[in-house]
Amino acid sequence: MSSGGGQSRRVFGLAAAHLRHEWILTLCLVSALAAVLAPLLILLGLKEGTIETLRDRLVQDPVYREIRPALTRTFDQQWLERLRQHPGVAFLTPTILPASSMLHLSGGAGENELIDLIPSAPGDPLLLENGGRIPLEGECVLSSEAARRLGVTTGAMVTARVTRSRAGHLETVQQSLVVVAVLSPRAGTLARVYTTLDFVEDVESYKEGRAVSSRGWGGDSARPYLSFDGVLVISRTPLDPIARTGLVVNTGLLKAEPMTQAAFTALTGLTLAEAWHAYDLSLPSGSVTFASISALQRKLRGRESLLLPYARRMRLRLPDAERALMGYSVSAAWAAKLSWPAAPWGELSANALNADRLLQILLPGDTADSGVALTVRFDGIEPLRFPLRAAGASGSQVALIPAELLGMLRTARDRVVSYRAESGGLLLERAGYRGFRLYARSIDDVPVLVEQLRRDGLEVVAAVEAISRIQVLDRGLTRLFWLIALLAVIGAGAVLIASLVAAVERERKDLGILRLLGLARTDVFLFPVFQGVMIALFGVALAWLGYLSLAEVINRLFGSELAPGQAICRLPESDSWVVLAATLLLALLSSLIAAWKATLIDPAEAIREE
Question: Over the stretch 173-217, which tens digit does the pLDDT of each residue have?
Fold first, then answer.
């Protein structure tokens, strides 16, 4: 007889013929194996389908990935940018105060509804995953509830009306917006309108009384408030310690110390005659406000004295060098009295902050070189560039500007200050945002982000408990499945081993005859192995058929509660191959004992039985 592949095929054919001959016993073995595998497949399908459906609902619904602050506080742009760089953050946009985010919307039929205004930006998952799109300037996206109240659909035009109360009068502006999308109800049940962050910021600015020139909305200019590092008091008569102490009482100041002539010149660049006395009033930390200066003026009333607010570490960048910058608002009478240069802008006044008065400078040196581009620089702040009109020479190495302008520039250490040509002066930018909308990349990132934010001292609101319950359920079902699977493997292995060993014992005579006919021990070894593999294949096929039938029934029963594409009982294709491979491996291992016993059969046994 030939050997090799041909002999193995003959053995396989004999094994198959024997199973077909004993078809009743074979059917029993296949049914027993299927009875073990089918419930296991159903359990695995329920685990995968149920958990995956729940995870899909959490993962696909951005509401479960949202994290928002529990309390209102100020968040600056730098802090938000650092948070945006976290690997678990998919999307983040700042928000404004809830009181400023309400506006009136009206549709084509004239409905007027109070709707919550929410900022959006590119990548917003709440919009993109609920049938929306990112709105551009002049566009908006409505929630399903907002669209229902307004009676509008995609493509309609709505009018946003923003109102405020200023100086006892009610003022209103409006903006037309195109509805580019209406979100599905899954995005939320509240009436909301989503627009660009720029529009939301403009609405907040208008409600706070500021003008929004880009939209033609009138209002006040947000001028920077005045702040200083200290105030110099110049007095004809010396101030004794009691008088100096009186200057810091109820003025917001804490220190009042005398200055030498050299120290005064080093700070101001101005020369002080010996007949005059200088005192430095300041705070150990923080800034001196104009309210403190006004309080000092009242205390010094009747005394021949002058106040010079100052700010340290401020420099003016010229084309050829940098010079120290000093605030200098002095009347003509005081300038003549102290032999100082005349200040064209006059004496100190917080009520005259127009650009024509403030944007002037006495350049260092003895000449006034007009037409130079000037940049103000001071420690810790980006250089601020804006035009200053040369109004003369300071006569020293220090550049002199209005003290009010110096106070505005000093405020830039605490707040963002910018220059806008259209408004003709310095403007105080927003201090920060009052909240944010954050979406994690996945539900598994939510607990990590929440823990980090809470470590930073920020209490947040997130669906951590719902996510935790799903994770606990997933782990519990996984353990339960593997325990039942282990029991099933032991049972299936015992069935296969017992049946195959019993089959070898029943077929000792037949196997002995095959040995006499020339089958080698290795060929006889393969006989129960092939039978075990075929039983396993038939058992898996029957189990799979039972699983598919029962899974279809289960999914139909719960189909009304599922979204399209979801299933309560479902096995991934990869899992079906894993089940088949595991069953075949189990069959092979179970058949080894029977195969070993088959190799021990002596061909002489067949002759003796004959």
Answer: 999 999 999 998 888 888 999 999 999 989 988 887 778 888 888
For residue 51, give the H/E element and its range: helix 23-60
**Cα dihedral 528, 529, 533, 536 in deg (nearest 10):** 60
Pair of tokens at residue 354: 């127009």
* Percent of the chain predicted with pLDDT > 70: 74
CA–CA dist 68, 446 (Å, integer): 11
Using a pLDDT cut of 90, give the percent of the chain over it: 17
Which of 446, 433, 483, 476 is closest to 204 using CA atoms? 433
pLDDT of 45 > 50? The answer is yes
What does the CA dihedral 534, 539, 545, 548 come to, rounded to 10 degrees? -120
- Grouping H, G, I as helix, E, B as strand and the rest as coil, residue 415 is coil
Distance CA 153, CA 180 (A): 9
Which residues fall within 8 angstroms of residue 361, CB to CB, at 6 or more apart?
316, 374, 388, 389, 390, 391, 399, 400, 401
3-state SS of 458-522 is CCEECCHHHHHHHHHHHHHHHHHHHHHHHHHHHHHHHHHHHHHHHHHHHCHHHHHHHHHCCCCHH
Torsional sign, CA 584, 589, 594, 598: positive
In a domain, 357, yes or no: yes
Question: CA 550 → CA 25, 37, 537, 545, distances in Å?
Answer: 26, 13, 20, 9
Q: Which residues contact 39 (CB under 8 A, 6 or more apart)?
A: 488
Residue 555 falls inside a structural domain: yes
Q: What are residue 401's DSSP bridge partners?
A: 327
Q: Which residues contact 51 (CB under 8 A, 6 or more apart)?
A: 470, 473, 474, 477
- Give the residue numbers spanning the domain of 391: 227-428
Question: Does residue 523 have a pLDDT over 50?
Answer: yes
pLDDT confidence of 157, banded at 50, 70, 90? very high
What pLDDT is recorded for position 375? 67
pLDDT, mean of residues 496-522? 60
C-beta of residue 166 within 8 angstroms of C-beta of residue 104: no
Measuring CA to CA, how many Å separate 77 from each of 127, 204, 213?
23, 17, 23
Whether residue 413 sits in one domain with residue 509: no
Domain check: are 375 and 496 in the same one?
A: no
Cβ atoms of residues 345 and 335 within 8 Å:
no
**Does residue 507 share a domain with residue 409?**
no
CA 400 to each of CA 268, 288, 341, 365, 490: distance values in angstroms, whole numbers, following the listed order: 9, 20, 10, 11, 93
* Tokens matching residue 370: 């007009």
Q: How far is CA 194 from the centre of its chain?
A: 17
What does the DSSP assignment read for 199-233?
Answer: HHHHHHHHHTTB-BGGGTB--B--PPPPEESEEEE
Residue 110 covered by a domain: no
pLDDT for residue 97: 80
